[in-house]
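$ fold --in a.seq
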Amino acid sequence: MNYKDFEKAMIQPVMDIISDLAIYNYSISNQGEGCLYTMYKKYNCLIRIGFLDSTYNPDLLKEDSEWIVIETRTGREREEKLLKLTLEELGISPCNQKSDYAYSKRLVSYLNTLGWPAGNLSNMNI
């Protein structure tokens, strides 16, 4: 096979990849920023991690008196999804559909290592 034939055969797959990457980059850039948060429920030692869209006021998190807001920061929903997938791969599963996790020093260590806003969870008396 000569160079010209090889080049001709590769044009379509390369163009498909370029267009897929352009669509992917466009969808990533259009994701709005919001609020990443960590909350703690002392009653049953649960940690809730989540994302709040920028259209919502972060003060809404403080309205639930059972949960203590540990820390918040600006971020994207994609970060939350990646964190949850990573925790699953590390063997830590949520207790329910609301992203509540049982408190453990191992979980807090992973949250800190992965750059999640975990505040002073490791210093709490539990």
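$ fold --in b.seq
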Amino acid sequence: MTRAVITRVLKAYATGDGETIVSLFHPEIIYESIGPSDFMPFHGRHVGLKATLDALAQITDAMSVSDYTVSSVIADGEYAFSRAIGTYSVRRSCRKARIELYTFSRVVNGLIVHWREMSDTLSAARDLFGVDISMLALSIEPLSKDMPKTTL
């Protein structure tokens, strides 16, 4: 069931079928988009359906996607991994980039309860928003409170 749910939500994303996407999200979904939020404000942790839909709306407002293709969905029990690639275009500038998206998700009782998404955000920032990534200082939060914070 997990693989079918993830395949269905990714197909809905590719075709702009918002009703299907909403129907597959748990009301208390956790959506995490990993990357620098300085120039991509939708990155971060969003808890609950409203916060998740608001973040997805920010993406849709900022960019359009075409040629979105899912290359793999692997599921084991409640957990799934997927890989997709699409051409993203910034609406303001018409800058484009091919971006690979990787997701790790959890499905319980047919609904997505956790969706963690990542890509090569530095290349996306450079290609889509013209950010000079050579001058970008990134802070990496430690996985544990016992580890030091790192700045690149």
